[in-house]
Amino acid sequence: MTASPRRNAEKRKKSRLRQLLEYAGVWLAIFFVRLVPFRASMAVCRFAGDTFFFLARSRRTTAIDNLLMAYGPEKSPAEIREIAKRSIRSFFMTCFEMIWITGQRPGEKPEIRMDEFELGRQLIREIYDKAGGIIFVTPHLGNWEIFLHLARLAEIPLTIVARPMDNPLLERLVTRGRSASGQRIVHKKNAMFVMEDALRQGTCVGILADQSSRGIAANFFGRPAFTTVIPAMLAYKYNRPIVVVACVRMDEALLYRGMMSDPLWPDLTQEEGAEVQRLTEAMNHWMETFIRAHPDQWLWMHNRWKRVSRSLSISQ
Q1: Which of 246, 234, 231 is CA-nearest to residue 282?
Q2: Which of 219, 153, 218 is nearest to 182 (CA)?
Q3: What is the bridge-based pairing of β-strands 113-115 and 255-260?
Q4: What is the pLDDT of residues 14-41, one digit of tens each?
Q5: Which burial class, exposed, middle or buried, applies to 296 when counting CB atoms under 10 A from its CB (0-12, 13-18, 19+)?
Q6: Tens of pLDDT along 204-259?
Q7: Which of the 8 DSSP states describes residue 1?
């Protein structure tokens, strides 16, 4: 039995009291993070991640199930469980890092450092100058919010598509933090017109495209996963390349390594439907490659394969 649209709408809508309590909780967390030294904050968020892993049974189960589907016998049950735990730690670290980065803490404030940033900046500028715009796709890997600041440092005009939160108070707070990078943030709903206008004007667009979405089934870890076709459609319509990027966390505080795919150019001599499928498959391939390199930094607790049968493989 499926829930009615009305019931779903009621489920999504939170009471004013709950919104205020969530907002207060987040502000307390922000206050705490800005109060203590950065390394101590990281230790606390690792503890918070482990606590969440222990208490949030459904999220833990989803993460472990996804890892089992992705890796199968490649990894032992102990390895799977450890990756799932470290993945949740990574999510909490991302939240804590962004509080530091966007905060106005006086005195000591670590700066973002990017390994081989100048080389990456030059590569992106070359692609941008040739294409007049880029469609950036990034997975929830490492710290995906860092890309906003790196685009500013690389002097790349960027419009980011983000899913709005179901708490308007938190949404305004998060949007202020994201907008501090100087980039334009638009909500996912009705964002197609804004993205098309941005590409026409020579602005790049950025999309988080690794979650289950209405679209087409494309290979992801050897299984069909419904994936958004928006990046591929925009690439074909405006003859712009897709570039998959990720910022993974290094051992040293606030030091990241950038990962970037080859530019995925559309072949305008081919039929649009076939090209959309090819580009989407290629996009997923690059995201999978990055995730396999750093599996403990991807958001495994999202139900990536929820729209398809978990028993299927792409070869069936």
Answers
A1: 231
A2: 153
A3: parallel
A4: 677 776 777 677 777 777 767 777 777 7
A5: middle
A6: 999 989 988 888 999 999 999 999 999 999 999 999 999 999 999 888 777 888 89
A7: -
Kindly calculate the radius of gyration of the chain based on its CA atoms and give it in whole angstroms: 20
> Would the pLDDT of 298 be above 80?
yes
In this predicted model, which residue has the larger pLDDT, 238 or 100?
238
pLDDT at site 141:
95
Choose among 212, 241, 258, 246: nearest CA to 119: 258
Q: Residue 9 has what pLDDT?
A: 45
pTM of the model: 0.84
Q: Which secondary structure element, helix H or strand E, spans residue 176, and what is its range? A: helix 168-179
Q: Of 173, 171, 233, nearest to 207 (Cα)? A: 233
Contacts 24+ apart (CB under 8 A), 266-273: 266/232, 266/235, 266/236, 266/239, 266/240, 266/241, 268/236, 268/239, 272/233, 272/236
The CA-atom distances, in angstroms, between 92 and each of 63, 85, 88, 298 are 15, 11, 6, 12
Q: Report the C-alpha gap between 46 and 103 in whole angstroms.
A: 20
Q: How many CB atoms lie within 10 A of CB 231?
A: 27
Q: How confident is the model at residue 253, as a pLDDT?
A: 72
**Alpha carbons 210 and 113: distance in angstroms, whole number:** 25
